[in-house]
Design a protein that fits this description.
mainly alpha, 4% strand, elongated, single chain
Length: 110
């Protein structure tokens, strides 16, 4: 018995948008991590007016916002990557399932 019998006459669908999108995901992941980190670093130099406790509170709130943005970007990249892989697999070759002999297929019990 042969595993993975390809469907005769099936033509593969060429890769499209999902492949271009999948190849861009590392760049999006890097930019979505580095840019908020740079913004959090720059906030320490920009937010300098007020009392020390006020500045610390503002910087910490901005840091939390940047961590949230990074978590969102990572989650979005992971979700889109999984979707691209699913579409890529679905466009692959089609396979025939092996037949399964059912004993009562011609005379079902009522």
């Amino acid at each position: 018995m042969s595993w993975l019998n390809k469907l005769p006459g099936y033509q593969r669908t060429p890769y499209g948008f999902e492949w271009r999108l999948f190849k861009r995901l590392p760049q999006v992941l890097l930019a979505g991590t580095v840019l908020p980190a740079l913004a959090a670093w720059l906030a320490r130099f920009v937010l300098t007016e007020g009392k020390a406790s006020e500045i610390e509170r503002r910087v910490q709130a901005f840091d939390f916002l940047m961590v949230g943005i990074v978590a969102f970007v990572w989650t979005a990249v992971l979700t889109i990557g999984i979707g691209c892989i699913i579409v890529w697999l679905m466009k692959g070759p089609a396979y025939v399932a092996d037949g399964y002999e059912v004993s009562h297929s011609d005379k079902p019990k009522l």
